[in-house]
Design a protein that fits this description.
The complex is a heterodimer of chains A (530) and B (229).
Chain A lengths: L6 E6 L5 H10 L3 E9 L5 E8 L7 E9 L5 E3 L9 H11 L2 E3 L13 H6 L31 E5 L11 E7 L2 E8 L7 H5 L4 H9 L6 H16 L5 H29 L3 H22 L8 E2 L2 E2 L5 H26 L2 H7 L7 H6 L4 H6 L6 H4 L20 H28 L14 E9 L2 E9 L5 E7 L1 H13 L7 H8 L3 H5 L14 H5 L3
Parallel strand pairs in A: 1-4, 5-6
Antiparallel strand pairs in A: 2-3, 3-4, 7-8, 8-9, 10-11, 12-13, 13-14
Chain B lengths: L1 H17 L7 H4 L1 E2 L7 E2 L9 H5 L5 E6 L2 E6 L9 H5 L5 E2 L7 H14 L1 E2 L3 E2 L6 H19 L9 E7 L6 E5 H13 L3 H15 L3 H12 L7
Antiparallel strand pairs in B: 1-7, 2-5, 3-4, 4-8, 6-7, 8-9
The chains are: A alpha+beta (530), B alpha+beta (229).
């Protein structure tokens, strides 16, 4: 099996010419994936702009790189050129202290609104008599652009049934139309990227797995892929097939859950229960193959850790046979429900041009008729050897996104069957040995259930990576979700959220934050309303 | 299609009334062969080399040297059940399976297998439905609770091994006696018996000497005449 080669061009440019270079690349048809910043010490702050051309030519990637002065890091914003850089630049502002000139909305996204007071202000002093510390929130009203608007503000979260994870969505509402919405993240922040820098590659594999619960195989797989690329190791065929199988099984269970959640959030809870009942078959399969239901831990550097035996593949095939009956039946029932279809149709319309412009990925892009899928565009694992095709819908609304997920589930089941057959006849070697990791850097991408996943791993020749940067699908799609919420009815908000299916615990780990010893964050200060 | 779908949905509701419960208690519902649970260390096999401690990604394994003794323990609450320690252990002393430990458990497990039947080697099939089965499964969970959940028995089972003393200066080395013996046996096993007899003395001296003593005496030892046949 020939390993698809990843074409990566790294170009170092001056910070002044950045805007021209970026618009030049975008004119050529590139998609901007991410912007990351790393403090490199003496060389200054390294800022990387990741571009990919793979929806035109397979496996083409470019990184634009600049170095900024550490004492006075100033960069000109490219957000006016492309909105895809919006959140990444806000991340630079917050976590590296870079001044981004000309950014349209340089507000806090992850850190609390009064974080400066919390971390740089004076420590609260105990009262001399009672020895009590005044823990009341600061009296000074916090700056928040939404609260100052002459509209009604409706908060969702931090803990709200419409969100599975904790985050905070604030909407300004006029009558019942949402005029403005803003998201605040950072409740699940764990500093995983920073932790990766001081653990060796084998430990990082398990750490990457714990970024997200529901797409854990994709996380560990992309980390393993980038390390294999650094070490120039050829992964055996059986391992490639097993990885493909595991990814697709995970996609099935993730999609089934997200389809069920749509029903739950739009007031059709029976649908969730049925989705979970059907999903249980897939969870059984995953448990048989990997031993565990959630964190599978099957992927190793250079291959897989445990063999997939013939008995196990037979078990999966028998379960798939049951699912081939029950899943289309379930989808039929969902689509025959007029109330549900009425709530989803023509809601949250993301037109094709807008999707391309804002850099939508995953089912969101495919629901708008874009053929964007990493599995086809820059194939990884064994996706080249399997018969399948990208699923697209032209509806552009919530319903189209759900239909994409439904058809993708069926497609994944088709892929799983082929993988099961091919694993049986594959040669039995499981993993190639990773002996040495030379200095170098690579990116690796994979298609998680929610969209593409980007890992940028830099090795400095030691047993720990120099740095790791992760871009998760929700990072892009959640911003698009906010755009969709603007101007829609308040009652449609849960439908839009669930159709985009954001995963915030993935997104929150991106942040790099070296706090001081005092790490108490007043939850109430995040809202900014008292 | 809509009307047909509605009828189908109605049929689904009716079948739902007679369907067995989908969710069952995890400990007995479905036990896969690869299921990874509490790491169990075979104290007889363990040499205290520290390979598991080095590779553990969550810091669950602990190795502490106090005086002339080394204690090896596993913190069950920190363990993430990744199974890396079991992969890495050179003596295969660690295991992360649900395999029974005590005699009683073993007996019970075999009974359970008889009653439920085995699907190939992959799994112990789920117990759903009849009362007899639930009784059996209840027993099974009880057994597991006895061996793991009770407060008296700490899940972190410690082993203590003696540390090696340097044969030259007499200081304590950060290596256990057992570990050195195992290494020696393994090396000598691959040699011819005549060669092994000659090498053994040198190896013993070399292994049981601390690093600073090795440095001091290295010249002397390197010039020491050896005869290999």
């Amino acid at each position: 099996m020939s390993k698809p080669h990843l074409n990566l061009i790294i170009r170092e440019i001056k910070a002044d010419t950045l805007g021209e270079e970026v618009s030049d690349l975008l004119e050529k048809g590139a998609r901007m994936i991410y912007t990351s910043g790393v403090d490199m010490g003496v060389r200054g702050i390294q800022v990387n702009y990741y571009f990919c051309f793979d929806h035109h030519e397979p496996s083409q990637h470019t990184i634009l790189r600049t170095y900024l002065d550490r004492k006075n890091p100033v960069i000109h914003s490219v957000t006016p050129v492309t909105s895809q850089a919006d959140w990444s630049e806000r991340e630079l502002i917050e976590f590296l202290g870079i001044t981004v000139e000309g950014h349209p909305n340089p507000t806090h996204l992850w850190l609390p609104l009064d974080w400066k007071e919390i971390y740089t202000g004076e420590k609260p002093v105990a009262h001399p008599d009672t020895e009590r510390i005044n823990t009341a929130p600061p009296v000074k009203p916090l700056k928040d652009n939404i609260v100052t608007l002459p509209l009604t503000t409706i908060p969702y979260g931090p803990y709200h049934p419409a969100f599975i994870e904790s985050n905070y969505l604030k909407m300004s509402v006029e009558d019942e139309v949402v005029r403005k919405a803003d998201l605040k993240l950072g409740f699940n922040h764990r500093g995983i990227i920073k932790l990766m820098e001081r653990r060796d590659y084998y430990k990082d594999l398990f750490l990457a797995e714990r970024v997200c619960g529901i797409c854990n195989t994709h996380h560990s797989l992309s980390f393993a892929m980038s390390v294999e690329d650094l070490a120039a190791v050829e992964v055996p065929q059986k391992a490639q097939m097993a990885r493909t199988l595991l990814c697709e099984m995970e996609r099935i269970q993730s999609h089934l859950l997200s389809i069920g959640l749509i029903g739950d959030l739009t007031g059709f809870r029976t649908m969730l229960m049925h989705a979970i009942r059907i999903r249980e078959e897939m969870q059984d399969c995953l448990e048989v193959v990997s031993g565990q239901r959630v964190t599978h831990g099957l992927i190793a550097l250079g291959g897989i850790r445990r063999d997939i035996t013939e008995n196990q593949t037979d078990f999966i095939l028998s379960k798939l046979k049951i699912m081939k009956k029950s899943v289309p039946q379930f989808f039929d029932q969902c689509q025959s429900n007029d109330v549900l279809m009425g709530r989803l149709k023509d809601v949250g319309i993301l037109k094709r041009e807008n999707a391309l412009k804002s850099g939508a990925i995953g089912p969101v892009a495919r629901g708008s008729g874009l053929r964007i899928d990493v599995r086809k565009n820059s194939p990884f694992a064994a996706y080249e050897d399997v018969d399948w095709d990208i699923v697209t819908e032209n509806g552009c609304d919530c319903l189209a996104r759900i239909k994409v997920k439904m058809r993708e589930t069926l497609m994944s089941m088709h892929i799983c069957e082929q993988c099961c057959d091919k694993i049986k006849i594959a040669p039995s070697s499981l993993a190639a040995k990773v002996n040495e990791l030379p200095c170098g850097e690579t990116i690796s991408r994979s298609e998680a259930p929610r969209g593409e996943l980007l890992y940028h791993v830099v090795s400095n020749g030691t047993n720990t990576p120099a740095f790791v940067r992760i871009r998760v699908p929700t990072f892009i799609n959640a911003r698009i979700m906010l755009e969709l919420i603007h101007g829609c009815w308040l009652a449609d908000v849960p439908a839009i959220i669930s159709s985009v299916d954001p995963c915030y615990s993935c997104t929150d780990r991106v942040t790099i934050f070296k706090g001081k010893e005092q790490s108490i964050v007043d939850m109430r200060s995040l809202g900014g309303r008292r | 299609m809509n009307t047909i779908g509605k009828f189908k949905a109605f049929g689904e509701l009716i079948t739902n009334v007679f369907r067995n419960p989908v969710t069952v208690r995890e400990t007995f519902g479905f036990v896969a062969k690869n299921f990874r649970w509490m790491p169990r260390r075979d104290a007889d096999k363990c040499t205290g080399c520290g390979a598991c401690n080095e590779r553990c990604s969550s810091g669950a394994t602990n190795i502490t040297d106090i005086g002339t003794e080394r204690t090896i323990s596993i913190d069950g609450l920190r363990c993430i059940f990744c199974g890396r320690c079991a992969d890495v252990c050179p003596e295969h002393a660690l295991e992360l399976t649900i395999e029974p430990d005590t005699e009683e458990e073993k007996k019970f497990r075999s009974e359970l297998l008889k009653t439920t039947g085995d699907v190939g080697d992959t799994c112990v099939r789920s117990l759903r439905g009849s009362d007899e089965d639930s009784e059996v499964s209840f027993k099974y969970t009880e057994q597991i609770n006895v061996s793991y959940g009770s407060e008296e028995k700490n899940p972190a089972i410690d082993t203590t091994l003696k540390l090696q003393r340097c044969t030259v200066c007499g200081e304590v080395m950060p290596v256990t006696e057992k570990h050195l013996n195992v290494i020696m046996e393994r090396v000598l096993k691959n040699l011819k018996p005549e060669t092994a007899a000659i090498v053994k003395k040198d190896m013993e001296l070399y292994l049981t000497t601390c690093i600073s003593c090795r440095r001091m005496h290295s010249l002397e030892w390197n010039t020491h005449p050896r005869k290999f046949t």
